[in-house]
Amino acid sequence: MAFNHGSVAIFKVDDAGATLRDLSTYLKNAGLARSADTAETSALGTTAKTYVVGLVDATIPIEGMFDPTVDGYLSGLLGFGPTDFEYFPAGEPVGATKPKFSGQCILTSYEVTTGVDDMATISGEFQVTGAVTRAVA
Length: 137
Hints:
Oligomer: single chain
Number of strands: 8
Number of helices: 1
Helix content: under 10%
């Protein structure tokens, strides 16, 4: 089994100028949430529901620490796009136990939060548009 610590994950996204930016050192959390729609095909006279696979979808939630440079990248991406992303949940280099997920996304939400007793943070979500590619080589 190939287990990995979450701290080795890497998330990269193109900024509005199409330069790939590694945001990993500013993020505390990143992910890739994927889902598939289903359409019910049950007919009269059946006693169990049946389904067919529909469209697939994905989002990329992020949370991290505020930095003015990263804020500039993300502020420029809000409502812009689509733009390319790369996500390495087990770090680099890409291999059989270290997949790379890539595709295109649109930043649909971005928030800066400050509190009197904590550090300034960022959070947001990218909506993936099109297919997600999984590479192991």
